[in-house]
UniProtKB/TrEMBL annotation:
InterPro entries tied to this protein: Gfo/Idh/MocA-like_OxRdtase_N, GFO_IDH_MocA-like_dom, NAD(P)-bd_dom_sf
Gene3D superfamilies attached to this UniProt entry: Dihydrodipicolinate Reductase, domain 2, NAD(P)-binding Rossmann-like Domain
Presence of the UniProt keyword Mitochondrion in the record: no
Coiled-coil parts of chain: none
Occurrences of domain GFO/IDH/MocA-like oxidoreductase (ranges): 126-262
Name of the protein in question: Gfo/Idh/MocA family oxidoreductase
Presence of keyword Membrane: no
Keywords on record: Oxidoreductase
Family membership noted in the UniProt record: Belongs to the Gfo/Idh/MocA family.
Length: 349
């Protein structure tokens, strides 16, 4: 099949390399807002270069992947749907939840071939955890623990447009919890802290270490967050996120039930050091970044999109799924700002 890829930044270039290695992809057309980037990535992966998204959409592609800047997602997604093409779009579908709702309304009834990028749905561990829940082998769940810890903060340019830690980081945990448990979130209680800002403010040289000196409060954000979710069957889910985990990129999920408990992410690359005498686990090289920890998931995610394009499967992550995770993030942001529990129905109104 012939696929088009719009946006060749960090994740877009990564996708281009992955797509070039998939047997199903016979030809690839790429474009980016920066012409030099388009030419460089096209040459690297043996793809055709398109001057613009419009020309890419008109180049006879069978499906389109959108990895451009978030503020371009709504226009590009709508253009691809209007062209009658299957679409893979990195999350979020829009930078603002209201814009996401409006977009969802505009493409309603035409969105069955739209896939939103939440790669943990394709990670082997998360997939096995979901199967364990659905098989009943865990019994009834009472506690879920989800973790995403970044090795270092993103740059200021990213923080200005990310929407904050709940919307750009925690949201992956929110989606994973919905997908693995099959339950909906009904209430959210969240809090956040800016220890990094306080430490930078008290340092003798506050400019030392550019990433450490990022002022999260300036962007209305926090560097560390904790969220408690109440699911519709009474299960409690605890989500922990931070921008500071210098040992590596830590993504985990625990499920505790009446019959058994399981964990995702307890492999040799777990970026955690045990201080128990005689314990050598984990003994491997710690995962350094999400492209390392989730490389297999990204490949499986794009392979799933080729199956969607070929008509062999439905969308594995729908626009409705993306909105559901987005609403949880909105509730978390409001809860942290107002220091109180927030029902999901309160924000969806």
């Amino acid at each position: 099949m012939r696929l088009g890829l719009i946006g060749l930044g960090r994740i877009g270039a990564f996708h281009a390399r992955t797509l070039a290695g998939l047997d199903e992809v016979e030809s690839l057309v790429v474009t980016d807002a920066v012409a030099d980037t388009t030419a460089r990535i096209a040459a690297e992966v043996g793809a055709e270069a398109a001057e613009s998204p419009a020309k890419l959409l008109a180049s006879g592609v069978d499906g389109v992947l959108i990895a451009a800047a978030t503020n371009a997602h709504p226009e590009l997604l709508l253009a691809a749907v209007d062209a009658g093409l299957p679409v893979f779009c990195e999350k979020p579908i829009a930078g603002d939840i209201a814009d996401a709702v409006r977009l969802a309304e505009r493409i309603a009834g035409r969105d069955e071939r739209v896939q939103i990028g939440y790669p943990r749905r394709f990670d082997a561990g998360y997939t096995a955890a979901r199967q364990a829940v659905y098989s009943g082998e865990l019994g009834w769940l009472h506690t879920v623990r989800a973790t995403t810890l970044d090795p270092a903060p993103p740059p200021p340019d990213y923080l200005r447009v990310s929407g904050g830690i709940f919307r750009d980081c925690s949201v992956h945990d929110f989606d994973a919890i919905r997908w693995v448990t099959g339950r909906e979130v009904v209430e959210v209680y969240a809090t956040g802290g800016n220890r990094a800002d306080a430490e930078a403010g008290s340092a003798a040289d506050p400019e030392a270490g550019s990433r450490e000196a990022v002022n999260f409060g300036r962007y209305g954000d926090v560097d560390t967050a904790a969220t408690t979710l109440t699911l519709d069957d009474g299960t409690l889910a605890l989500v922990s996120n931070s921008r500071f985990n210098p040992r590596g990129y830590d993504v985990r999920l625990e499920l505790h039930g009446s019959r058994d408990s399981i964990a995702v992410g307890l492999d040799a690359g777990l970026p955690l050091r045990s201080v128990e005498p005689g314990v050598t686990f984990p003994g491997g090289t710690p995962h350094r970044f999400f492209m390392d920890r989730l490389a297999g998931a990204f490949r499986a995610e794009l392979a799933a999109f080729t199956e969607l394009v070929a008509g062999r499967r439905p969308s594995p992550c729908t626009v409705a799924d993306a909105l559901a995770a987005g609403w949880i993030a909105e509730a978390a942001a409001r809860s942290a700002a107002e220091h109180r529990p927030v029902r999901i129905t309160e924000v969806t109104r």
